[in-house]
Design goal:
By secondary structure, this protein is mostly beta strands. It contains 1 helix and 21 strands. The protein folds into 2 domains: about 25-110, no CATH class; about 115-155, no CATH class. The longest helix is centred in the N-terminal third of the chain and has 16 residues, at about 5-20.
Amino acid sequence: MEEYVSVTMYRYILNYTSNIQKHFTEIRVSKDKTEYCLNGVLHRVDGPAIVFAGGSKHWRLNNKLHRIDGPAIEYANGHECWYLNGERHRVDGPAVVGANGYKEYYLNSKRHRIDGPAVEWSNGDKEWWLNDIYHRVDGAEGMARFFAYANGYKQWW
């Protein structure tokens, strides 16, 4: 009696083994970076999912930039970006901090800050935003845009 595997059974075995491989963590190493993947996407719980040779790091969960306890992107030059579930987001400070002193405040990927300027340029210029719309609460009534420049010049319309 000959043993054989039916085409249906062969396809099942092939599919089953390929699915098993997808559930293992894969570490891809190249000369430029090291990537940590799970189920074929960038994903790492205990550290950055991408570590670049130059020192920059990206934290990702399910291929989305995400980190609760610090910036999801740390550049080698000191520039930092906070993300939560793929959106620029930080409640307790600026979501973007430039190495040169530049700061941007974001909530749910919208420029937003109630208690001060949402954008602070390294040269001292400032911009006020609420829910991704130019806004200044303590300024002239109906003012839509407000800029305060480092040289003391103010502009709004």
